[in-house]
Amino acid sequence: MLKIEKLNVEVADRALIKDVSFEIGQGQISALVGGSGSGKTTIGLSILRLLNPALRIISGKVLLSGQDLMGLSENEMREVRGKDIGMVFQEPLNAFNPLFTLGFQIDEVLRFHTQLSKAVREKRILELLDMVGLPEPRRVIKSYPHQLSGGMRQRAMIAQAIAVRPKLLIADEPTSSLDVTLQATIMELFKKLQKDLGLTMILITHDLPMAQHMADELVVLSEGKVVEQGDCMSVMNAPQSEYTKILMDCM
Amino acid sequence: MKNITHRSTSPTVEAWRNFFKARWAVVCLFILLSFYAGALFADFISPYAYDNEDRNLSYAPATKIHFISKGMPAWPYIYPVSFTFDQVHKRVYVEDKTQAMPLKFFHSGDEYKFLGLFKTKLHLFGVKEPARIYLFGGDSRGRDMFSRILFGGRISLTIGLIGVAISFTLGLLVGGIAGYFGGRVDSILMRVCEMFMLVPGFYLMLALRSAVPNNFNSWQIYFSIVVILSFIGWAGLARIIRGMSISLRERDYVLAAKTMGLSDFQIIVRHILPHTVSYSIVAIMLSIPGYILGEAALSLIGLGIQDPLPSWGNMLSDAMAIAHVQLHPWVLIPGVFIFLTVMCFNVIGDRLRDCLDPMMRGEKC
Predict the structure, then answer these.
(1) Among B29, B160, A39, B312, which Cα is nearest to B304's?
(2) Per-residue model confidence (pLDDT) at position B359
(3) B210 touches chain A (CB under 8 A)
(4) How far apart are CA B202 and CA B209, in angstroms?
(5) ipTM of the predicted structure?
(6) What's the pLDDT tens digit per position in A60-78?
(7) Residues B334, B149: contact at Cβ < 8 Å?
(8) Cis upstream peptide for B213 (omega within 30°)
(9) Mind listing the pLDDT tens digit for each residue in B222-247?
(10) What is the DSSP string of A64-101?
């Protein structure tokens, strides 16, 4: 479904991502695991071509259902963002604009990517909020981000990310700002969405136990390089690289 | 899961509530609203049309309204006035005590179109000819100053609003685009802004005014003045908005909006500029007086609105000669209105800043 081939990203002549390649199959969850600065988020944003202007993609292909995203024009790329690929951020309080209601902001994706009428869109939003397990969707629609708890905000953001049923969901540390019990429920939600919607997902995390619990495939990154990748169980049972062993020792 | 609050209040709503806690600001808001209402309903409130003149009443003093007839309280009435010359050939107006003309409410006078909808002759108050009621006195051509101030408000009070609307749209867009894109776009736009800022405002105004053809009618002049004034105002705002959007573009929700596929323009308009609103509202309030004074300055030196159409500025040009101020001080009344308007906008702007600026919150609000 998604295939990344020899991706290289550099900033001011210093290589950040070195020849990263991996593949995700339809309906699978793949976890990018690594410490801070290992390039997990950079890879995530490279897929969407939304890197900070200082960072440049030197070479590489990002194939989504066989189509190379690197070859698309900026306008075509905007169609892909949100519609084919959705993204969930670490800190939902910052990722929502504090001046608008959640209903308005979820509606933004639908307005941009679909031709649905206002009434249909609203019905869709209510369904989405229900799907991600938010109680009283009608009230959530009219709430501002600061009026919800962290867990509810994260659910609302997931609803926003899957609003147009994207093929791929990139979740960048989706639970790092939440407490442990909430982390578990959000992870259950992702599992459920994967099952119900056939969602393909890239989970970016530094949390190896969570990756183990969630993912089908593991990609372990260190300093911009893939140090190990493969089936989740086999990597965890028999880690090949030193770095993976160090990460596992931290569990 | 039960912690959704029942009221959905945005931060701005809170600030508006606080605004009304300050008595001074509310008084000023009331004064301004009554000025605007006066300008809107000028045809109805004023007893005469702005160009209704009686040369026999040139610089006639304010009409005396009498409330007592033969020692008894009576319905207010006035006497017609006529002039004689005194020993230095100055006009002296005397009342003709034989004709008491009662003041009439909903009097039938000059015909006008009410709010441009239907023709009527109804005025709030008036008095039968030959008496004329001049609440603030008459001007050089014997026109009612009170009526002319109401009509003049239409120009002087709207020029600020329209001017601000134009220059803020321009300033917000240019600043937002420059800050959001950065790089070369930013450099070019900011150099253009600086070109406008480095010419002293008043001279730029005169230069642009001289580029306007002389055969324009009053309304064309009105709009060219608005455009000229807004041309001067937008650059400073654009620079400040640029600075704000440079910091706003780094916010997570801007990145989030990008991942949703929104276009740059949509992001600027929806996710960047709304965050400059609290600054902009204050800046708008504090910059409106500049437009009012700019129009007054142009009209005062005869380059603005042309007689007979009144504006507070061109009415005030009567007061340029010290002799007029000495003999008939009421020619300064338009100046009082300009002063009050400018002051009210400043007080309200100040108060809004206190309420909207988070640094100040908690101190005065």
Answers:
(1) B312
(2) 58
(3) no
(4) 10
(5) 0.89
(6) 999 999 899 999 999 999 9
(7) yes
(8) no
(9) 888 888 888 888 998 999 999 999 99
(10) ETTEEGGGS-HHHHHHHHHHTEEEE-S-HHHHS-TTS-
Residues B235, B237: Cα–Cα separation, whole Å: 5
Angle at A10 between CA A6 and CA A13, to 5 degrees: 125
Three-state SS at A211: helix
- Cβ A124 vs Cβ A116: under 8 Å: yes
pLDDT at A43: 93
Q: Which residues of B130-150 are buried (b: 16+ CB within 10 A; e: fewer)?
A: ebbbbbbbbbeebbbbbbbbb
Say how far residue B56 (Cα) sits from the centre of its chain.
Answer: 32
Local structure of residue A239 (DSSP, 8 states): -
User: What tokens appear for B126 in the block?
Assistant: 């008036």
Strands (E), A79-216: 85-88, 168-172, 200-205
Q: How far apart are CA B24 and CA A192, in angstroms?
A: 59
Q: How far is CA B229 from the centre of its chain?
A: 13
C-beta separation of A92 from A182 below 8 A? no
Query: Do the Cβ atoms of B132 and B95 come closer than 8 Å?
Result: no
- Torsion angle in degrees (nearest 10) through CA of B359, B362, B363, B365: 100
Identify all chain A residues contacting B273, using CB atoms and an 8 Å cutoff. Answer: none
Task: Indicate left, alpha or beta for A133 from its phi (over 0: left) and psi (-120 to 50: alpha).
Answer: left
Q: Looking at the DSSP assignment, which residues form a beta bridge with residue A56?
A: A10
* Residue B68 sits at the chain A interface (C-beta within 8 Å): no
Are the C-beta atoms of residues B140 and B134 closer than 8 Å to each other? no
Which chain A residue is nearest to residue B253, measuring alpha carbons?
A95
Q: Which residues contact A44 (CB under 8 A, 6 or more apart)?
A: A32, A87, A170, A172, A202, A204
What contacts B358, CB < 8 A, 6 or more positions away? Answer: none
Let me know: does B152 contact B49? Beta carbons within 8 Å: no
State how far residue A147 is from chain B, nearest Cα, in angstroms.
6
**From B5, B259, B275, residue closest to A50, measured CB to CB:** B259
Question: Could you tell me if A32 and A202 are in contact, meaning their C-beta atoms sit under 8 angstroms apart?
Answer: yes
Q: In the 3-class helix/strand/coil scheme, how is chain B assigned residue by residue?
A: CCCCCCCCCCHHHHHHHHHCCCHHHHHHHHHHHHHHHHHHCHHHHCCCCCCCECHHHCCCCCCCCEEEECCEEEEEEECCEEEEECCCCCEEEEECCCCCEECEEEEEEEEEEECCCEEEEEEEEECCCCCCCCCCCECCCCEEHHHHHHHHHHHHHHHHHHHHHHHHHHHHHHHHHHHHHCHHHHHHHHHHHHHHHHCCHHHHHHHHHHCCCCCCCHHHHHHHHHHHHHHHHHHHHHHHHHHHHHHHCCCHHHHHHHHCCCCHHHHHHHHHHHHHHHHHHHHHHHHHHHHHHHHHHHHHCCCCCCCCCCCHHHHHHHHHCHHHHHHCHHHHHHHHHHHHHHHHHHHHHHHHHHHHCCCCCCCCC
Q: Does B261 contact A80 at a Cβ distance shorter than 8 Å? A: yes
Answer yes or no: do B251 and A94 touch at CB < 8 A: yes
Q: What is the largest CA-CA distance in chain A?
A: 55
Global pTM reads 0.79
